[in-house]
Automatic annotation (TrEMBL):
<dbReference type="InterPro" id="IPR012340">
    <property type="entry name" value="NA-bd_OB-fold"/>
</dbReference>
<dbReference type="InterPro" id="IPR002312">
    <property type="entry name" value="Asp/Asn-tRNA-synth_IIb"/>
</dbReference>
<keyword id="KW-0067">ATP-binding</keyword>
<dbReference type="GO" id="GO:0003676">
    <property type="term" value="F:nucleic acid binding"/>
</dbReference>
<comment type="similarity">
    <text>Belongs to the class-II aminoacyl-tRNA synthetase family.</text>
</comment>
<comment type="subunit">
    <text>Homodimer.</text>
</comment>
<dbReference type="InterPro" id="IPR004365">
    <property type="entry name" value="NA-bd_OB_tRNA"/>
</dbReference>
<dbReference type="Pfam" id="PF01336">
    <property type="entry name" value="tRNA_anti-codon"/>
</dbReference>
<dbReference type="GO" id="GO:0004816">
    <property type="term" value="F:asparagine-tRNA ligase activity"/>
</dbReference>
<keyword id="KW-0030">Aminoacyl-tRNA synthetase</keyword>
<dbReference type="GO" id="GO:0005737">
    <property type="term" value="C:cytoplasm"/>
</dbReference>
<feature type="domain" description="Aminoacyl-transfer RNA synthetases class-II family profile">
    <location>
        <begin position="131"/>
        <end position="471"/>
    </location>
</feature>
<keyword id="KW-0648">Protein biosynthesis</keyword>
<dbReference type="Pfam" id="PF00152">
    <property type="entry name" value="tRNA-synt_2"/>
</dbReference>
<dbReference type="InterPro" id="IPR045864">
    <property type="entry name" value="aa-tRNA-synth_II/BPL/LPL"/>
</dbReference>
<keyword id="KW-0436">Ligase</keyword>
<keyword id="KW-0963">Cytoplasm</keyword>
Length: 481
């Protein structure tokens, strides 16, 4: 008999039908009640076996984690806690699970423990909910751009340009590290390497995206990116996914409008389509926050926080305005910030970003027009201000509990200005000739941004560590499974 997904059965109204479900045992109580989960829903279905007529040895094999197939009649449940259940006619063990050795027990496990068994954590409610929401958000992103006529462009994962300036890179090589081919001066001879040159894993698809935008008008990439920075934080991964739209004829305001509407669209999509999961995650977060002192708990529960984000427009201020707010802020005056804000030009740390969002404005904030010296070479240069300070048309979106979720800018489209900046920043202009061709031939104003996918999932699920929103996290000294 064809199997029915548990999610569909839990909503079924047609009692008396014969159904088959296949899944994994969550619990087996009173030698009678099996809670089965097949991953389709965060909720289990209850199957009731008649132990008087079932072989003792079969019942013994109904352990937590065992894979089973159950066929029987779908009936209205008399017990509390579920609407429907299956009266088991046929029971088959598809895969035994040694209860003594199975690491997942029907009790609460810490997220840290589950991270060590990442291959099994999918079977828990928390991770079922997290990865369902992740899936919905990925789909919503494609849906949003598709509805707007953007072209989904696949940027390369292996790149030969090591000048994007976004972070440290992972080298890609087939050179035998025990027998490195060398030039006469002792340097590595990459001509002998697979691509005949030095190559790396990409840190961003933006530069390739710019080429496509200047032909298709509006494009986006959505793929894995790699950064070999040694940041062991709850916000950084060495391998993460990024969404990078790039649009010809957009200025910075158009860029901010697009980013804000994308974020609101996908959050709305999750609220509309992941009700059960978000309810569960809301409860999880409430539990987690009970462990914290009162003043560190959030004012809003998860779902209210998501709705709040939809109902309010993001605050848009310049870096210079932000510095003024931070300088005169209480934690700066009382020297509570780890990094005190003294001068214009300072890079903002996450404590500053979170102060602006969580304490000062109490909503998402878009910071624009950063000092040129702390931003990438490709950003559009503003005229120097009355104090001779140079800024660029950058925009970072800061979210409560997350800090920076989006980084983007209008791009410098004037060849000479861009080349001058690259030279100042020691970026090899020659090697980037393919990129500069966009500025040589039919250059136009354009803009784009990068949305960190895991940071988005972190925000929507209310999880607190980025390692818990990607199936197989890669971080310094950790690439298990
Ligand atoms: O600000 P970033 O470095 O911007 C870029 O890479 C540009 N090329 C984007 C563009 O304009 N097309 O990264 C963009 C976003 C950040 O705002 C953050 O959300 C996320 O990517 N991000 C990370 N997420 C997880 N782990 C890391 N190590 C991340 N680094 C950046
Ligand atoms: Mg950034």
């Amino acid at each position: 008999m064809k199997r029915t997904k548990i999610k569909d059965l839990l909503n079924a109204t047609e009692f008396g039908q014969q159904v088959t479900v296949k899944g994994w045992v969550r619990t087996f109580r009173n030698n009678q009640f099996i809670a089965i989960n097949d991953g389709s829903s965060i909720n289990n279905i209850q199957a009731v076996v008649d132990f008087t007529s079932t072989d003792e040895s079969l019942l013994k094999r109904l352990t937590t984690g065992a894979a089973v197939s159950v066929t029987g009649e779908l009936v209205e449940s008399l017990g509390k806690g579920q609407r429907v259940e299956i009266k088991v006619g046929q029971l088959e063990i598809l895969g035994d699970c040694d209860a003594e050795k199975y690491p997942l027990q029907p009790k609460k496990h810490s997220l840290e423990f589950l991270r060590e068994i990442a291959h099994l954590r999918f079977r828990t409610n928390t991770f079922n909910a997290v990865f369902k929401v992740r899936n919905a958000l990925a789909f919503a992103i494609h849906k949003f751009f598709n509805e707007q006529g953007f072209v989904y462009m696949h940027s390369p994962i292996i790149t030969g340009s090591d000048a994007e300036g976004a972070g440290e890179m992972f080298r890609v090589t087939t050179i035998d590290l025990d027998n490195i081919p060398r030039n006469e001066d002792g340097s590595v001879n990459y001509k002998e390497d697979f691509f005949g040159k030095s190559t790396n894993l990409t840190v961003s698809g933006q530069l390739e995206g710019e080429l496509a935008a200047l032909a298709f008008g509006e494009i986006y990439t959505f793929g894995p990116t790699f950064r070999a920075e040694n940041s062991n934080t709850t916000r950084h991964l060495a391998e993460f996914w990024m969404i990078e739209p790039e649009m010809a004829f957009y200025d910075l305001n158009d860029n901010m409008d697009l980013a804000e509407s994308l974020l609101k669209y996908v959050i709305r999509y999750a609220l509309d389509n992941c009700g059960d999961e978000l309810e569960f995650l809301k409860g999880r977060l409430l539990e987690e926050e009970k462990q914290k002192p009162q003043n560190e708990r959030s004012d809003l529960d998860l779902i209210s926080k998501l709705n709040f984000c939809l109902e309010n427009s993001f605050e848009r201020i310049t870096y210079t305005e932000a510095i003024n707010i931070l300088k005169s802020s209480k934690p700066n005056q009382k020297k509570q910030f780890k990094y005190l804000i003294e001068d214009w030009g300072a890079d903002l740390q996450s404590e500053h970003e979170r102060y602006l969002v969580e304490k000062h404005f109490k909503k998402p904030v878009i910071l624009t027009d950063y000092p040129a010296d702390i931003k990438a070479f490709y950003m559009k240069q503003n005229d120097a201000d009355d104090q001779g300070r140079n800024t660029v048309r950058a925009m970072d979106i800061l979210f409560p509990g997350i800090g920076e979720i989006v980084g983007g800018s209008q791009r410098e489209e004037v060849l000479e200005k861009l080349e001058r900046r690259m030279t100042e920043m020691h970026i090899p202009v020659e090697e980037m000739s393919w990129f500069l061709d966009t500025r040589r031939f039919g250059s136009v104003p354009h803009s784009g941004f990068g949305l960190g996918f895991e940071r988005l999932v972190l925000f929507v699920t209310g999880m607190t560590n980025i390692r818990d929103v990607i199936p197989f996290p890669r971080t310094p000294k950790n690439a298990e499974f």
